[in-house]
């Protein structure tokens, strides 16, 4: 039995006693690992133990969210009820629950656009969750689900400022990474992940290749719905000039009139709105240049 399967054992009976979970089911209190009431942080166990040491590609998120947590529990119980041993069941969990839900189609489209299907010699990156699962390792800098005031953790408070989060980073993620094929390429999903991986690389804790432009680590956007604008910029066939993009987006913003319910019924100022669009345009321009698209 691998060390990864052994990590599951203390929680196995509790997980198996649970009834099927909905994507929106709250965290199960019996799987609580720790709580920090002063920071409104909670950590729960979820069976994301499997590590694909032979992976050629490593996709790194922040932490499993509520959907992924609940699907991992369901997947483990289903796999065990189907007669799979612990090792195979944990592999099934990663394949089924990792980056699952509405974000996965966006991620697949983005990975294809960035050229990973061609780099891996596959037809489409959707197969990374199917017949080509052996090529990829799915993980998060914080292996177990972290919640802030009951909501998915998105980077605040800074994990390096919280000993419990820092311990989770080094005791789980770093150790896992050190066991994975050193020639594998990493895709950090989002700026927060890129910042963490940059610090770990500079300190010599990980040595895998990171996407860079002008000697700085760049990251595709995290595939959550909140990053729809950035994802659209990655997927564009013809990247507009900054001015074209700002004008196009501001005109669209005014026409949709969603601001009627915000800003006291007044649209956001053009200068302020366009400044935010410029920040995204520059960030995604760097990603596109790093990937030569």
Q: Mind explaining what this structure looks like?
A:
The chain is of the alpha/beta class and 293 residues long. It folds into two domains: 3-227, Uracil-DNA Glycosylase, subunit E; 236-290, no CATH class. It has ten helices and nine strands. The protein has helices at residues 3-16, 66-81, 86-97, 103-113, 116-120, 163-177, 191-202, 228-235, 242-256, 270-290; strands at 32-36, 41-44, 57-61, 136-140, 146-148, 151-152, 185-188, 212-213, 216-217. The strands form three sheets. It has a four-stranded antiparallel β-sheet with strand order 1-2-5-6, with no helix packed on it. Strand 5 and strand 6 (151-152) form a beta hairpin. Helix 2 runs antiparallel to helix 3 (86-97), helix 8 crosses helix 10 (270-290) and helix 9 crosses helix 10 (270-290). 37% of the residues are buried. The model has no long low-confidence stretch (mean pLDDT 95).
């Amino acid at each position: 039995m691998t060390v990864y399967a052994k990590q599951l054992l203390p929680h196995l009976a509790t997980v198996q006693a649970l009834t099927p979970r909905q994507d929106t089911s709250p965290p199960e209190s019996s799987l609580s690992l720790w709580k920090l009431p002063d920071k409104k942080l909670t950590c729960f166990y979820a069976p994301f133990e499997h590590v694909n040491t032979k992976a050629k590609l490593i996709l790194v998120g922040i932490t499993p969210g509520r959907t992924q947590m609940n699907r991992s529990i369901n997947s483990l119980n289903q796999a065990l009820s189907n007669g799979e041993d612990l090792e195979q069941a944990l592999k099934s969990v990663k394949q089924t629950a990792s980056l699952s839900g509405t974000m996965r189609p966006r991620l697949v489209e983005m990975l294809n656009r960035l050229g990973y299907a061609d780099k891996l010699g596959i037809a489409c990156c959707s197969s990374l969750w199917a017949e080509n699962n052996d090529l990829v390792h799915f993980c998060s800098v914080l292996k177990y689900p972290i919640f802030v005031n009951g909501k998915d953790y998105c980077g605040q408070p800074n994990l390096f400022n919280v000993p419990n989060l820092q311990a989770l980073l080094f005791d789980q993620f770093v150790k896992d990474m050190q066991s994975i094929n050193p020639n594998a390429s990493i895709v950090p999903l989002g700026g927060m992940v890129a910042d963490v991986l940059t610090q770990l690389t500079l300190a010599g804790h990980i040595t895998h290749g990171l996407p860079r432009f002008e000697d700085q680590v760049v990251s595709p956007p995290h595939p959550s719905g909140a990053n729809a604008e950035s994802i659209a910029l990655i997927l564009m066939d013809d990247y507009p000039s900054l001015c074209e993009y700002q004008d196009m987006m501001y005109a669209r913003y005014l026409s949709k009139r969603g601001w009627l319910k915000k800003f006291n019924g007044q649209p956001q100022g053009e200068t302020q709105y366009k400044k935010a669009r410029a920040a995204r345009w520059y960030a995604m321009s760097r990603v596109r240049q790093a990937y030569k698209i």
